[in-house]
Design goal:
The structure is a homodimer. By secondary structure, chain A is of the alpha+beta class. Helix content of chain A is about 45%, strand content about 15%. Chain A has 2 domains: about 80 residues, Winged helix-like DNA-binding domain superfamily/Winged helix DNA-binding domain (Arc Repressor Mutant, subunit A, Orthogonal Bundle), CATH 1.10.10.10; about 50 residues, 2-Layer Sandwich (Dna Ligase, domain 1). Chain A has 6 helices and 5 strands; from the N terminus they run ααααββββαβα. At the A-B interface, helix 5 and strand 5 of A face helix 5 and strand 5 of B. Chain A binds a DNA duplex (25 and 25 nucleotides) through helix 4.
Chain lengths: ~150, ~150
DNA sequence: CTTCCTGCAAAGTCTTTGCAGCACC
DNA sequence: GGTGCTGCAAAGACTTTGCAGGAAG
């Protein structure tokens, strides 16, 4: 499903729940859905402002809350300079966080489910989601300075 | 190594680095080292105050920073009501976070290293640490309300 | 028209910082 | 005694909230 298709789907679901479709909301949704770089709220806000200057940070926050509720965005890493969000792959998956440049990459090709399942079995927890973040230095930063 | 032994070891290392050993610091260290429940800074502060009322929150924060630097404490879950800390098992390990009662349990008996290693290999990252948090409902809360 | 949404500003939380005086070494 | 530490209070970063006016349905 591409970004525009998802956008239409989400807007439809919002309407069904009695929510409205304002230009700000659409712009914010589009910015989130198309962002592949795990942006902060601040970053989304700035992107939206480029195309649609009449938007406030508060509205972006309110929209994130909505998207989180709908499961269309996940929050990752509550660390430096604010939480970051992933609406591009809203299913839980590993992230690789570069402590040098702050960039966040998606961890791909490794199945985490077995570990999650094992922990769940061991603990009698009813696990609903997980977060796996690896911290380190990305290839680019390694090349730059050893 | 038990708590008191670790305490002595840490104090020794602090002194070697030109740091001092004040009653507050010792009390805070002891509270952190003996806490098995992943407390917040606020909780540690309250515990220290019981035995040693002349302590400020700022000092607890400063001491956490010191302990983090020394690798004697790890920060887990920057979620609701402040970061929580684990000085009892300061090596990275999975945590099971109950979204109902807020309790944090240690995930035991499952080796996460292979997954971390696989992700590291795949990504050309130089991974230094990781964080694996599972969110769900603990056994106690399940029993309580389905 | 009604209800939800927006934007502003204020408040709230958690954490950090500046600084004067005190206490460890 | 010198330097680091403490406690206070203020500042800071991020996020949430209250509210009046405006807009979607």
């Amino acid at each position: 499903m591409d970004t525009e298709e998802r956008l239409r789907d989400i807007l439809q679901r919002l309407q069904k729940d009695g929510h409205r479709m304002t230009p700000q909301r659409v712009a914010i949704l589009r910015a989130f859905l198309s962002a592949q770089d795990h942006p902060t709220v601040e970053q989304v806000y700035r992107r939206v402002c480029r195309d649609f200057p009449m938007t406030s940070l508060a509205t972006v926050y309110k929209t994130v809350a909505l998207l989180k509720e709908m499961g269309e965005v996940i929050e990752i890493s509550g660390d430096l300079q604010g939480s970051r969000y992933d609406a591009f792959h809203p299913e839980p998956h590993p992230h690789l966080i570069c402590t040098r440049c702050g960039q966040i990459y998606d961890g791909e090709g490794v199945d985490v489910q077995p570990v999650v399942a094992a922990l769940q079995a061991q603990s009698a927890f009813q696990v609903s989601t997980y977060r796996l973040d690896l911290y380190g230095v990305c290839a680019a930063c390694q090349a730059q300075s050893g």
